[in-house]
Amino acid sequence: MAAVPECAVPTDPHAEAEFPEPGSAGELAAFAALQGRLPGLFGRVFPDPLAPQTIVVLPGLTLDRAEIAKLKGAPHYEERLLCLLMLLRRPRTHVVYVTSRPLDPTIVDYYLHLLPGVPLSHARRRLTLLACQDAGDRTLAEKVLARPRLIERIRGAIPDAQAAHLTCFNATPLERTLAVRLGIPLYACDPSLAWIGTKSGSRTLFRRAGVALPDGVEGLRDAHDLVRALAELKRRQPELARAVVKLNDGFSGEGNALVSFDGSPAGPGLERWLRAELPARMRFEAAGESWERFREKLGRMGGIAECWLEGPEVRSPSVQCRIDPLGGISIISTHDQVLGGPSGQIFVGCTFPADPAYCGAIQAMALRAAEALRGEGVIGRFSIDFVCRRRADGWEVAALEVNLRKGGTTHPFLTLQYLTDGEYDPQRGCYESLTGRPCFYHASDNLKDPAYRGLSPDDLLEIAVENGLYWDAAAQQGVVFHLIGALSEFGKLGTVCIGDTPRAAARLYHETVAVLDRATHAHAAPAADAVAPAIHANGKVAFAPGILGIFGAHGPAAQAAQG
Length: 563
What we know:
The protein is α+β, with helices and mostly antiparallel strands. The protein contains 17 helices and 21 strands. It is about 30% helix and about 25% strand.
């Protein structure tokens, strides 16, 4: 979880008498009353495909602005939740989708044409698209709250507030204020619990739940604390070669840095050596990061230091869970994460499901953590990231962090689920469609190449149709694109490639890359953020055909996962 952007919630003078002050006791009481509707909605409306309901989707990333700025094509990340438009397959469901800028009609049509058994005109009548007409760097939640008339239009698009809820990428006090002003509950973690989803909060929770985690120190407040923590880790493990430092609110591995202990002295001189050497020894995952900026963020966000797990084969799987409003815990899915960046810490994609060799172990650990989260009052979707290191007798598994939000594995799985009506079976560690067909996928938010710039959404769909890159509902396999709006300006695209075997999913991914490269005559050099064993020669994520979870398995440790 990331810190709420530092800004006051904009207020309308005419609304002050109607709504309580943001963060006030009155707003907290109003929010609690709205949240009290969720158990009834979950029990009555969610299970019934014919029940009238409205979902208001706020797809923006309410994260630290400096962290968002590191994401290439960040303005278009609001498109990742367009998979929720497939909820319109329920004939009495309304969706209100709110964005910073208007969505390209071609992109909207692309998703609506994926709807099985629903006339396009029927779905369109139940879809409301609203935009702030604001391309600035404020978060989407801030933009909406600054526009009381837009809030009124959202409220006007909800036929029955008693059968409506707000869903978002991550919940902060801004989303809480918006829920109160809309008069509908927020189906997400209470923002007051956000600290649990930080790097320090996650380590505290894992200890309380009895879940194994790497040796480390949390609660760092500044560079002085960092030096002391690194020295402590080195003294506890004299053979330690490297440590990883993570900002509490870092996102997608971009807030991480490696520190090498090569040449460090033993004894009392270690801290003095670290103070002198640290600025030059920090190896940041984010391009363009500096010690001065990182130190400032550490003082503002806090952070942790952990032992960097070395080994010939290290992987980073994750488990996606849900705690429903009635308190039920579900394992939704598992993934092996594909990581890039200078030392393999930045999330670039995933394979589904996770390798059976450790799938059961990470699920059991995730359940223990989920029980602890339920005890804290957490509801909604979240994920838990792990690191797995191969040993002679099997896999050593440790938990890394809790992400109390949607993430890079959320939209690929929702896409699969909405298209196939299937479900993941945690007992067997596999997924089957409604017709009993097994499903696997390879997904990426980072299919990118400078040669792709200039391709419009219409260009992409023309290329896809001419080359058979589409979803085949009869065969229950195919390719689904996302982040389409980022293609022309940033040369970046997302894709979910679904097959009935791991090899089939990998083949679809490679074919998608090859088709796009042929269409754009791409002959680019390797991407600067590539991990060599996991990246094609042209800079795209390489998924090994027929093998689950291969992502630089013989390269550096994958100890950062999604956050």
